[in-house]
Amino acid sequence: MNNICIIDPVNHMPGIKTLLPEADYYSYEPNNLFHFPTTSHLNNYEFFNNYGFHYRTDWNNISSDKYSTIIVIFPFLDAIEGTIWTKKEGVYIMNIIKTIIIDNNFKNRILFDTYDFDYDPSKLSPIDFNIYFKRNYNKNKLYNNNVYPFPCSMFVNPCVLTMMLNKNYENKQNINNIFWAGNLFVFDDELFNVHRNRQNIHSKIAPYIHSYSGLSYGDFMNKIKTYRICLDLQGNGDPNKRTFEILSNGSLLFTNICDLNWGFEEGDAFSEETIFYNEVDFVEKSQKLLNDEAIYNKCLANQKYLVDKYFSKEYMRNFILSKL
Length: 324
Description:
Elements: E1 4-7, H1 16-19, E2 24-26, H2 44-51, E3 69-74, H3 88-102, E4 108-113, E5 131-134, E6 147-149, H4 160-165, E7 175-181, E8 186-189, E9 194-197, H5 198-205, E10 210-212, H6 217-224, E11 227-232, H7 241-247, E12 252-255, H8 279-291, H9 293-310, H10 313-321
Parallel strand pairs: 1-2, 1-3, 3-4, 4-5, 5-6, 7-10, 7-11, 11-12
Antiparallel strand pairs: 8-9
């Protein structure tokens, strides 16, 4: 008997099926009545073309008679009523899931929260989940002891978990400069104290980087593969899709994401030379990375060690199952 049910209503983390191949994976077919806005939500045909398997849609088959563990994947704040971030589609689908959980007796009720912000989902939850995994887990904040970091959970296509499980180091990074391409925006959220100003930091460091705009996604990925260093500017939430596009292709990640708890074991961390805090720090560290081969090689070797260890199928699978 299969004991694990995955409900990923709008296909945000199909890679979890690679980690847990024994599980049944359910999603919701988009139609005229329900199509989740702003994030990836593929029909079964598109989904198969992207990920190589079909998702199940027979949600009436989900019960604790068949499954002992239920895993839900969703940007949780979208489903919490009464905030400016509430989406009616999110509330609708989470109410269906809530009914499934109330009507059954699952031993493990797990939420993977793919939302941008670093709140504690256990303190907002209207559903009796007993384990939470979070994309954005702030190392300077305290969370309930049933909340764990899992940065590879995001609401983008392609799935960043799938991206990391299929990483490719066979690229030719021969351009000794810093690559950047992405949206430049200002974002402020007073409720969750999230303030991002990519325009400001980019304007200050622009003379020191190679910036591109208007690239197709294919051209963008090809550019990443040719640069020895790629810039990842902090977005609305940590980490970004860009973070994993860089890590999965073997270029050196250079970022101002400073407060993320990656879930690494004690003593393991990205090299301090690859994390900058302001434009002055950026200039000093970028010049060392570009001009000191020993520092660059040390940082790249450490990054490869971390990626190989923590973003492997075996490690991530064991990390999830160890919390059950």
